[in-house]
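tool_call predict_complex ligand=S-adenosyl-L-homocysteine
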Amino acid sequence: MSRKSIILPKISKGGRRARSGSPWIFSNEIRMDEAAKAIVPGAVVNVRGEDGRAFGTGYFNSKSLIAVRLLAEDCDAAIDADFFAARLGRALALRDRIYDKPFYRLCHAEGDGLPGLVIDRFGDTLTVQTGTAGMERQIDPVIAALEKILGPKTIILRNDAPTRALEGLSPYVKTLKGDSHRITVEENGARYGADLAEGQKTGWYYDQRDNRAFIAHLAKGKTVLDAYCYTGGFGILAAKAGAKEVVCLDSSAPALAIAEESARANGVTIKAVKADVFEELERLKAAGETFDIVLADPPPFVKSRKDLEPGAKAYRKLARLAADVTAPGGVLMVASCSHNIPQERFAQECAQGLLRAGRRAALIRQAGAGPDHPVHPLLPESAYLKALFYALD
Ligand code: SAH
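tool_result ok
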C-alpha cells in the first residue's frame, strides 16, 4: 500500500514554522479533509505543500493539536529498524562523548530527531517512553534498533505519562525484557537507588545532574534543606560533599525510603521528612529555623496553558516561603519543570516572591537540564527545566 500524503495549504499562517524547519505542524495548518481524517492515528505519512513542495516524512494524528511530527526531510523515507538505529546511534555517540559512565538520558525526543520517544539508560537497563500515537506504532522497530546498538539486559516500557491522553493513548507499564527494576544510578560520583517500574516518570531525574553538582560544590560545612527531594538527588550529593546537616522533604513515602537507603549506601546521613512542602516551610518559618542552602524543585505547577496564572502564583509563593527559611548569606535554588511557563515569567515570579520575603537577592546561576536533554533549536519551548540560583543577603 502506498503511503498517504498530508497536504499543507499554500497560505497558512503557521505553516511558516514548518517551512522554516520546525518539526511540528499543527492541526489548523493542514487540509483536514475526509481523507486526512480517515488516516489511522500515528500513521507514517508524506507531507507536501499545495505547491508540491516536499516537507518530508512524518507521523500524523488527526486527533492531536500537533497533527504532524516530522521524522525525515525526504518524502517516502523508510521508517524502520535501520532508521531508528541510525538516529539512536547518533544519540549514543553524543552521550559517549559527554559522559564516562553509561548513565544518562539516551534519547530526548525532538532534540535527538525522534519526536515522542524518550529513553533513559541505567547501565544495561533501559526505560523507554512513547508519548505519541506515532511513536507508539514504532515500538517494535525502536526495540529492534536498541537491541542492535546496545543489546540491553532489561527494557522497561514506562508508558504511563498523563500527556499520552492528548494522543488518545492509554497508560501502561510493561517489562519487555529482563526482570530487575530496582537498579543503582551512578551520577556525580554518588550511587543512588531507583525503582524504574514503580518510581515517578522513568524512575530517576537525570535533568538535574549538573545542578546537583553545582549545589554540592557549595555544600561543605553547610546546612541544606532539599524540598521536593524525591529520592534525594540533591541532598545525598550535598551530604557526600560534606554538608553539616541535610533535611530531605517530600510527600512520597516510597521516594523517601529510597532516599534513606541511598544515603546509607553512600555512607552519609540525611533526615527524611514526609510532609507537604508549603506546610512544612510555614512551620519552619514559625519555628525560626533556617538553612544555609535551600532547594525547591517542585512537580510542574503549570500543567497546561490554562494553569498559567494559578501556577505562576504558586511559584511566587514557593520562592517567598523558601527565602524565609534561607539563612542570611545563604543560597536558594527554585526550579520549574513546567513546559507551559516561559523562563522570563518564571524568573519574574521568583523575583516577586523574594521581594515579598524582604530579601535582597543576586541571581548567580540560571540553568536548565544537562546536555543529555538536547533541545531542537526551533522548539525552544521544549527546554522545560528552569533552575534559578540566588545568593541572599
Ligand atoms: N528534586 C528531585 C526531583 C523532584 S520531583 C530530584 O532531584 O530527583 C518532585 C517531587 O515533589 C516528587 O518526589 C513528589 O513526590 C514531590 N511532591 C509533589 N507534591 C508535593 C508536596 N505538596 N509536598 C511535598 N512533596 C511533593
